[in-house]
UniProtKB/TrEMBL annotation:
<keyword id="KW-0862">Zinc</keyword>
<dbReference type="Pfam" id="PF00107">
    <property type="entry name" value="ADH_zinc_N"/>
</dbReference>
<dbReference type="InterPro" id="IPR002328">
    <property type="entry name" value="ADH_Zn_CS"/>
</dbReference>
<feature type="domain" description="Alcohol dehydrogenase-like N-terminal">
    <location>
        <begin position="25"/>
        <end position="151"/>
    </location>
</feature>
<dbReference type="InterPro" id="IPR011032">
    <property type="entry name" value="GroES-like_sf"/>
</dbReference>
<feature type="domain" description="Alcohol dehydrogenase-like C-terminal">
    <location>
        <begin position="196"/>
        <end position="269"/>
    </location>
</feature>
<dbReference type="InterPro" id="IPR013154">
    <property type="entry name" value="ADH-like_N"/>
</dbReference>
<protein>
    <submittedName>
        <fullName>Threonine dehydrogenase</fullName>
    </submittedName>
</protein>
<dbReference type="GO" id="GO:0008270">
    <property type="term" value="F:zinc ion binding"/>
</dbReference>
<comment type="similarity">
    <text>Belongs to the zinc-containing alcohol dehydrogenase family.</text>
</comment>
<dbReference type="InterPro" id="IPR036291">
    <property type="entry name" value="NAD(P)-bd_dom_sf"/>
</dbReference>
<keyword id="KW-0479">Metal-binding</keyword>
<keyword id="KW-0560">Oxidoreductase</keyword>
<dbReference type="Pfam" id="PF08240">
    <property type="entry name" value="ADH_N"/>
</dbReference>
<dbReference type="GO" id="GO:0016491">
    <property type="term" value="F:oxidoreductase activity"/>
</dbReference>
<dbReference type="InterPro" id="IPR013149">
    <property type="entry name" value="ADH-like_C"/>
</dbReference>
């Protein structure tokens, strides 16, 4: 089959590889009908998360069940399914507590994000490096799904692939970022990042009853898109004083909730310069720090943008002084997906309006390049095998 494999930083290729086979009675094989490129794939692409072998990448995908292991009784050959990106057994302590990306039975390698051997097991994710279990990803014609009795969900016939594909990752991710903040209604929600995840968080803020939604980015075309598809007020962080504007809008208090949907990709040139008062060193704030400055006292900061290394300027005193709540992590898609499919079915939310490019799988290298470099007003690429 054809599959997109990582070779070295900035180099993915469409290679011919062996078709996947059932390896366990709880496996399924699906024939991929659509797969997307995620901001998280760019971490591998840009060499920010180490990947040693030429693995098949991609964790956002859906398709048709073509083979089933004996123990998978909830699916039938021919079913159309979307597949959550965490690989999770469904029965360990963490899965039983809805903490699917912390499954104890999906990553035997015990590695953490920086490649260090951890003292506890970590998550298993499709197509997201050997550190996360080394599972072949879904940017391919076929993919093996471990624990297929737990993850994949059948999708209603009336919905197209485009309408449901983002249930695999970015809609649940945007949704949980807001859900963590327990909105009561009427709040001001500021979302840093108007990439696919940030825009999904902005759409989700309205679904949770926000009174005002603000999208922040440094790419004018992405700000325009956020205005259009998420009905957000927008601020260009490369040109405007985000903290000042949001404080002015909130009688000096700051936003009730700040969401970091940028993570370690933040363009450091655009970030605020700060001087460390103890060492005198000049550094830059990152988006997480901007969230801490922008959120009101007693507010919530949700971090869904990925950070893959230690960070030594964590604003602990501000965190303490403002009495903040901080939530972060990979999203337990399995815990949210059924509810979110219904929101799509009931037309409470539209997901496909962020797709700017649909390309054949064979054009994956070009697709990575335009998504990474924000060329051709690229916001979200869908690949069709
Ligand atoms: P993306 O790279 O398309 O979006 C990032 C956006 O941040 C871009 O629009 C970029 O212009 C903007 N940006 C860069 N520097 C900025 C700055 N200084 N201030 C404001 N905006 C800035 O990626 P995406 O697909 O939207 O994903 C966003 C993040 O979410 C990534 O880190 C990705 O890995 C992560 N993610 C996490 C989960 C999870 O489970 N937690 C799931 C999916 C994606
Ligand atoms: Zn993703
Ligand atoms: Zn588990």
């Amino acid at each position: 089959m054809k599959a997109v494999r990582y070779h070295k930083p900035k180099d993915v290729k469409v290679d011919t590889v062996d078709d996947p086979k059932l390896e366990h009675e709880r496996d399924a094989i699906i024939k991929v009908t659509e797969t997307a490129i995620c901001g998280s794939d760019l971490h591998i692409y840009n060499g920010k998360i180490p990947q040693l072998s030429n693995m098949i990448v991609g964790h956002e995908f859906m398709g048709e069940v073509v083979e089933l292991g004996k123990q998978v009784t909830n699916l039938k050959v021919g079913d159309r399914v979307v597949v959550p990106f965490p690989v999770s057994c469904g029965s360990c302590f963490f899965c039983q507590h809805n903490l699917y990306p912390h499954c104890e039975n999906s990553n035997e390698k015990h590695y953490g994000p920086e490649g260090a051997l951890m003292d506890q097991k970590g998550a298993g994710l499709f197509g997201y490096t050997d550190l996360y279990g080394g599972y072949a990803g879904g940017q391919a014609e076929y993919v093996r799904i471990p624990y297929a009795d737990v993850g994949p969900r059948r999708v209603p016939d009336a919905l197209t692939d485009d309408q449901v594909l983002f249930l695999t990752d970015i809609f649940p991710t945007g949704y949980i970022a807001v859900d963590w903040a327990n909105l009561k209604g009427g709040e001001t929600v500021a979302v840093f990042g108007c990439g696919p995840v940030g825009i999904m968080a902005q759409k989700s803020a309205w679904l949770h009853g926000a009174g005002r939604v603000i999208g922040i980015d440094i790419q004018p075309y992405r700000l325009e898109k956020a205005k259009k598809v998420a009905n957000s007020l927008v601020i260009n962080a490369a040109e405007q004083d985000v903290v000042g504007i949001i404080r002015d809008m909130t009688e000096g208090r700051g936003a009730d909730v700040c969401i970091d949907a940028v993570g370690m990709e933040a363009d450091r040139n655009t970030l605020e310069k700060v001087v460390n008062t103890v060492t005198g060193q000049v550094g830059t704030t990152n988006v997480l720090e901007s969230c801490f400055s922008t959120v009101r006292r007693g507010g919530v900061v949700s971090v869904v943008g990925v950070y893959g290394s230690h960070y030594h300027n964590f604003p602990l005193s501000q965190f303490f002084d403002k009495g903040l709540t901080l939530k972060a992590g990979q999203v337990p898609v399995q815990a949210y997906i059924d509810k979110l499919i219904r929101l799509v079915e009931e037309e409470k939310v539209v997901l496909e309006d962020i797709i700017t490019h649909k390309l054949p799988l064979s054009e994956a290298p070009h697709a990575y390049e335009i998504f990474n470099n924000k060329k051709d007003d690229c916001l979200k690429v869908v690949l069709t095998p």
